[in-house]
């Protein structure tokens, strides 16, 4: 192998390791990193094609919104654009919330803790002390959102019917729970 191929292989190996790092440690901000992964994957394919094959021609043309376009290049460009244009769409998980209720937690403690996970506060309206201190079953609870999970809590008391029905409304970053 020539020195150029070794240099190309080293650069490609670095790029692949960076791609692996990008997949394993996604950004903490919660942003969708699929566009970055798509670009890095296409870049890896392009460099691999360019370093290993050299001179193959790629040509793609089409029409979009009344404009004709043409993309062409050597093997590296061919692989880059092939991956770029035909990379599958990345699925996203539907929103959801799951929470484990520990033993001997009260209704108030569970609601406050669940709301705190998303930075919300809770305003209890019309509840008496017996309802707020009702002990809940130790189990997992889930829903499409934190509010939906909180709405289910009254059904999980150790004493059935210990908490009257309530409505939950969201106002800014506050959940209002009001007895019907």
Secondary structure: number of strands:
7
Strand order of the largest sheet: 4-7-6
Q: Could you state the order of secondary-structure elements as H and E?
A: HHEEHEHEHEHEE
Alpha-beta classification:
alpha+beta
How do you describe this structure in short?
With 180 residues, this protein is an alpha+beta fold.
Give a description of the structure:
This protein has 180 residues and is of the alpha+beta class. It has two domains: 84 residues, no CATH class; 83 residues, Baseplate protein-like domains (Phage tail protein beta-alpha-beta fold, 3-Layer(bab) Sandwich), CATH 3.55.50.10. It is 41% helix and 23% strand. The chain has six helices and seven strands; from the N terminus they run H-H-E-E-H-E-H-E-H-E-H-E-E. Strand 6 and strand 7 form a beta hairpin. Helix 1 runs antiparallel to helix 2. The termini are far apart.
